[in-house]
Amino acid sequence: MHEGIPDFAMPSEQEVRRAADSLRLLADPTRIKILWALLQGETSVACLAELVGAAPTAVSQHLAKLRLAGLVEGRREGTFIYYTAESAHVRALLTEALGQAAVTT
User: Fold this and answer.
1) Residue 47 to residues 24, 33, 89, Cα–Cα distance (Å)
2) Distance between CA atoms of 62 and 34, rounded to whole angstroms?
3) 6 within domain boundaries
4) Is the Cβ–Cβ distance between 71 and 85 less than 8 Å?
5) What is the distance between the alpha carbons of residues 49 and 59, in angstroms, rounded to a whole number?
6) Domain of 21?
7) Residue 58, domain member (yes or no)
8) Per residue of the chain (105 residues), what is the pLDDT tens digit?
9) Which of 48, 50, 52, 67 could form a disulfide with 33 if both were Cys (CB 3.0 to 4.6 A apart)?
10) Ranges for the HTH arsR-type domain (predicted)?
11) How much is the pLDDT for 104?
């Protein structure tokens, strides 16, 4: 234990890797826009594409990565899939990051 920091415990290697992977995944402007839109409510790929200004195929690829990471969920209705992101952790992280960006600009 370091003498200057009482009761200090370093996160495990696995926790650090997972955190780094999550932050890397969020380090994309389009994914941030997608997540922010999904935090407002459930929507389709077509609506997301219009909201974030990206092609539907690009949005689908981003959603696939976000879904694999457990950051978004999809619900099939007929031929459409509606996505949502209801994680309080994602909301807090994005709110903090966007707030920090506003302060530093």
Assistant:
1) 25, 12, 24
2) 8
3) no
4) yes
5) 6
6) 13-104
7) yes
8) 456 677 788 999 999 998 888 889 889 999 999 999 999 999 999 999 999 999 999 999 999 999 988 899 999 999 999 999 978 888 998 999 899 888 886
9) 52
10) 11-105
11) 80
The pLDDT value recorded for residue 2 is 54
Rounded to two decimals, what is the model's pTM?
Answer: 0.83
Nearest to 56 by CA among 47, 65, 64: 47
On whether residue 1 sits in a domain, the answer given is no
Task: Encode 18-82 in three state secondary structure.
Answer: HHHHHHHHHCCHHHHHHHHHHHHCCEEHHHHHHHHCCCHHHHHHHHHHHHHCCCCEEEEECCEEE
Residue 56 lies in a domain: yes
Q: Check residue 75 and give left, alpha or beta (phi > 0: left; psi -120 to 50: alpha).
A: beta
Q: Which pair of structure tokens corresponds to residue 88?
A: 């309080």
**CA 42 → CA 21, 36, 91, 102, distances in Å?**
25, 11, 14, 26
54: CATH: 1.10.10.10
